[in-house]
Write a structure and sequence with these properties.
Region (Disordered): 1-29
Number of helices: 15
Helix content: 55-70%
Mean pLDDT: 88
Number of strands: 2
Low-confidence stretches: 1-9
Structural class: mainly alpha
Membrane topology: Multi-pass membrane protein
Distance between the termini: 59 Å
CATH superfamily of the domain at 97-316: MetI-like
Radius of gyration: 29 Å
Domain ABC transmembrane type-1: 94-307
InterPro entries: ABC_transporter_permease, MetI-like, MetI-like_sf
Strand content: under 5%
Shape: globular
Strand order of the largest sheet: 1-2
Order of helices and strands: HEEHHHHHHHHHHHHHH
CATH topology of the domain at 97-316: MetI-like fold
Organism: Streptomyces olivochromogenes
Largest sheet: 2 strands, antiparallel
CATH architecture of the domain at 97-316: Orthogonal Bundle
Length: 322
């Protein structure tokens, strides 16, 4: 009969004996680790509850009330929303905002992509040009930029003098209802640095072998851009479109400052957030303003949902190619 042999791994004689941890001890250690994690997260949790979640819940309640900051809120149901849809100035703010988003966002992204394509090529002073084009995005839509922009586009300022030299005089964009919105579009287009940097990162990920193969097949620059560059950077393009669209809906500071706090002339710069500000803090109709804020949230959510639905048709991820 055979003899059973058990192989035991040698271990140092002074090695401590390792015993499995009891289930109760494991639970206690897990609770201590969870408690430590929650303690580290507590500042963020407190800030979120007090500065974000709490005010959002309060504004949702105020949206269904008649509240003017001085008296107690009075529940009125959907009256704020009904009054909003019949308000001509609210309709004007929706029109102005939609026009700004539809014109400004594509122009900004087109310029950002064009400059990114130029800067993606190796050339002397490349780092300087990247920093120079990105610098305006660091400033943001600050009050100081708004004042400078209003001075540039005022009557008899540098933009107006340049136009007069070229043969047409508008009297300044800021004072003309037909032109003042385009000064805001020019401001957002000027700050194209952030999407440009994102486009640059996406262009760096396109394999050079694809361009070399296309050149061998006789593809020209346009065909290489349309059939290789755009599909390969489509996830980056989708990200920029989504981000810049949401930012465009939130425009306030530049419109408020450039119009000298009037959102005019003739309500030409009455963007949605500007009218919301007037209703809430000038006319003290905080319930109406809260309803406007939630309508803006729903509109942005709807646009975001449409963009995510449309990405299935034109955004190509690496997994799709496989």
């Amino acid at each position: 009969m055979g003899t059973a042999v058990t192989l035991v791994k040698d271990s140092p004689p002074d090695a401590p004996e390792i015993r499995p941890e009891a289930p109760a001890a494991q639970k206690r250690r897990g609770r201590r680790e969870n408690l430590a994690g929650y303690l580290f997260m507590s500042p963020w949790i407190a800030g979120f509850l007090l500065l974000t979640a709490g005010p959002m819940a309060a504004s949702l309640y105020f949206a269904f009330t008649d509240y003017n900051l001085f008296n107690s809120p009075k529940w009125i149901g959907f009256d704020n929303f009904t009054k909003m849809f019949h308000d001509p100035r609210w309709q004007k703010s929706v029109e102005v905002t939609a026009k700004y988003v539809v014109i400004g966002t594509p122009l900004k992204l087109l310029l950002a992509l064009g400059v990114a394509l130029l800067l993606a090529q190796s050339r002397r002073g490349q780092a300087f040009y990247r920093a120079a084009f990105y610098a305006p995005s660091l400033i943001g839509a600050s009050v100081s930029v708004g004042f400078v922009w209003r001075a540039l586009f005022s009557d008899d300022a540098i933009v107006d003098r340049t136009q007069s030299f070229l043969g047409f005089h508008t009297g300044g964009w800021v004072g003309d209802p037909n032109w003042v919105l385009y000064s805001l579009v020019a401001l957002t287009v000027w700050q194209f640095g952030a999407p440009m940097v994102i486009f640059l990162a996406g262009l760096k990920q396109v394999p050079r072998e694809l361009y070399e193969a296309a050149e061998v097949d006789g593809a020209g620059p346009f065909r290489r851009f349309w059939n290789i560059t755009l599909p390969m950077i489509s996830p980056v393009l989708f990200f920029n479109v989504l981000l810049e669209t949401i930012h465009s809906f939130q425009i306030f500071g530049s419109a408020y400052v450039v119009s000298n706090a009037t959102c005019g002339p003739a309500d030409a710069t009455l963007v949605y957030t500007c009218y919301l500000y007037q209703k809430g803090f000038r006319e003290s109709q905080m319930g109406f303003a809260s309803a406007m804020a939630w309508m803006l949230l729903l509109a942005v959510a709807l646009v975001t949902a449409v963009l995510f639905w449309s990405q299935k048709r034109w955004v190509h991820y690496e997994e799709d190619a496989r």
